Amino acid sequence: MNLDLDDIQRGVLSPRPTPYAVTYLVFRIDDRAHGRELMRRLSGAVTSVADSASPLGETWVSAAVTCAGLEALGVPRSSLDTFAWEFRQGMAARATALSDVGQSSPEHWEAPLGTRDVHVVITAVAPDALVLEAAVDRARPVYERLPGITAIWRQDCYALPTGTEHFGYRDGVSHPAVEGSGIPGSNQLEVPLKAGEFVLGYPDELGGAETPQPTVLGRNGSYAAFRKLHQQVAEFRRYLRDNANGPQDEELIAAKIMGRWRSGAPLALAPQCDDPELGADPHRRNTFLYERDDPAGFTTPGGCHIRRANPRDASVAGEVRLHRMIRRGAVYGAPLPERVMEDDGADRGLMFAFIGTHLGRQFEFVQSEWMNHGVFFGAGNTRDPVAGAADGEAGYAIPHRPLRRRLAALPRFVVTRGGEYCFLPSLSALRWLGGLQD
């Protein structure tokens, strides 16, 4: 499969650098002509996949547009109607299906997230904060001196010195291989997925090649689900402490909940104790399967986070390849000091981007059926123990012989603070949007 790598945004297919610094900038279009000028300027600032060998190195800029943003730019209704219906509805309208209820419901989201004021999302990615600020400075002329464009929100994200997210686990471990991208996947046992699962206009795993119309707008684009997820770190630490028999047992429970030790070493390859050397090895730490070696989940519990998010070769989950997506997480907020068990009121968590071409059977399916239900592996209505919409009623079971180990009822550790469905246009689509005429 030959992909138009010089037309596809680099933010679609390239893993973020390690370490990293990321900034999300959100804009509202108040003047259509200025919005179109913004698209024209972005077409020259956004980095393509083919630019990966450029002097910019591991630094790039991406641009995404919401359905409300396409409307503000004057995209005809006949064209908008060819986009995914979940995208047209917006993430806030899909809250019930996504289990964004209670404290995660859109009424509690951080303004302006989830509103029709969110039109354009510009993301800058770099290896460190200094390089990131330089990238943001270079991108500033794109939107400055356009009075009809209003900056309404910004979120800065930086890799923690520990290389982990706030719960203490190494992040950025998994990345799928995409046919024709030239970018290797992190699991050497996984056959590369069809490009059409991640880039519009190419055959997907079912042989289809969906593309919003006109083709110049849809082809080489992707959908993205952006999420701001607040992590209740003190709550998580207290849960581990209260269910453990000591520090060593606490780490075992943490591994059984996640499916990996905090170093990144998977239980599948390090079942008895942590292996930091394995956890630091990107060529080994993600190369494993479940069905062949651990179908009953005695090593890696079927209900743990990583097995729910990607069941790999598990036949009980159906055709797993139809639900794969690219996941990117970036940490925001200062860490809660070690061993502190009470919340300090600070906002900390992850900005997540889920990228694919089928919002329904990728992001929404995984969120509703795998993360917030357990029927696919015979566990009823149980939820993901880390990121699920726990209600404080259901516990967590760790398979063990002769009797499984039952932990206390799970509180909700991750709260949605906002999100939106976006479209990542190709570079030629950005030029097309910039040239729209009333």
Automatic annotation (TrEMBL):
The keyword Iron applies. One of its GO terms (molecular function) is metal ion binding. Belongs to the DyP-type peroxidase family. GO terms for cellular component: cytosol. Keywords: Iron, Metal-binding, Oxidoreductase, Peroxidase. It comes from the Bacteria. Its cofactor is heme b. InterPro entries: Dimeric_a/b-barrel, Dyp_peroxidase. It comes from Streptomyces malaysiensis. SUPFAM superfamilies: Dimeric alpha+beta barrel (SSF54909). This is Peroxidase.
